[in-house]
């Protein structure tokens, strides 16, 4: 699968952009701040519904506008063509279209185009706080599990409603009859557990799929270090109790982790009952803080090296290689599951990485059907690499020229209207 055309309207810095691309390597080059990352970020958002550098839709929409549109023509494995389009709204629901048809949900488009992006700050996946690892697992989930994105959206919605109710309870005056609000909270808590558990089990399955290739690829990148592990750490500890994945912190590690497909209906009912019980214990604290104190929005993925937490112990170089192995593991799992190579994005990786890592990433990417590379200066292009070159400064100038034309057209129309009114 590969892209042949990308069109953006009011996405980040781009009022309008239209680029035609070919399979193989496409290099987007130009000075800092021209909008190169914005272009590849649009591909990532179209593929996964999210961006690794934005937590909401607002920053993705051009400043002062209400809506951003990303459109791409894709050639599928059977050589047919599909046009995918998503519209991100500053207010209200985001929408999507396939082949210019009727408006559909974002979830109908998300996951259709397999894309994995590599960036120099990927090592933060290992060293920084859990929200980055949750973003990674959400993107992986959107690509690997057709239900994942919809479950995540519903969970976030219910989590928001539940917080609103907790805050209402927090601010009730003494003597106020709170029984109706409590009843309401009970209903939302039930839904929160239901959706939260589905999300937790989906995430567990994704980490289960990634675990073996991650360890193997890390070993290959480091010429034989087999100690790298990823372990899912769900906020709903009740799931882990039911499906233990041993960490090397506590002793010997079992290569065979438990996937969510091994969990029976009986297990699920018992996990739900235990989570409900947990909520009863923390309920007063939730009201006091006005927050959902447990749930997948507090999950983490532990990354270990030599039995220690990589977040605390890994060197910069090790952290970068761990992150690289994680992204490459996702590519491998996607490839096996979809029988098609994912599209690869290498965002500004060449200028900032040492020669060894540049070579590792290039060797990997050069075998893929389509690769997008952004770079400030063409001199960073590895010697002998054949690529389609896109001058982003020229794209930006064309955009300014078309804005100018549009403005002149508007002014001309206004003058015409005025003179007609006077006549
Ligand atoms: N929502 C937005 N509306 C308007 N402009 C935006 C928006 N979001 C980002 N920008 C602008 O986009 C520009 C950055 O674009 P981008 O990150 O793609 O640059 P780049 O070409 O990749 O640069 P570098 O080589 O430094 O990484 C900045 O000037 C920023 O102000």
UniProtKB/TrEMBL annotation:
Q: Return the GO cellular component terms, semicolon-separated.
A: cytoplasm
Tell me the Pfam families matching this sequence: SMC_N
Kindly list the places in or outside the cell where this protein is found, as annotated in its UniProt entry. Answer: Cytoplasm
Q: What biological processes does GO assign it?
A: DNA replication; DNA synthesis involved in DNA repair; double-strand break repair; SOS response
Keyword entries, A-Z: ATP-binding, Cytoplasm, DNA damage, DNA repair, DNA replication, DNA-binding, Nucleotide-binding, SOS response
Task: Indicate where this protein is primarily found.
Answer: cytoplasm
Q: Does the keyword Plastid feature in the UniProt annotation?
A: no
Ranges of residues in domain RecF/RecN/SMC N-terminal: 2-375
Q: Which Gene3D superfamilies match?
A: P-loop containing nucleotide triphosphate hydrolases (3.40.50.300), RecF/RecN/SMC, N-terminal domain (1.20.1050.90)
> Function of this protein?
The RecF protein is involved in DNA metabolism; it is required for DNA replication and normal SOS inducibility. RecF binds preferentially to single-stranded, linear DNA. It also seems to bind ATP.
**Family membership noted in the UniProt record:** Belongs to the RecF family.
Name recorded for this polypeptide: DNA replication and repair protein RecF
- Species of origin reads Galliscardovia ingluviei
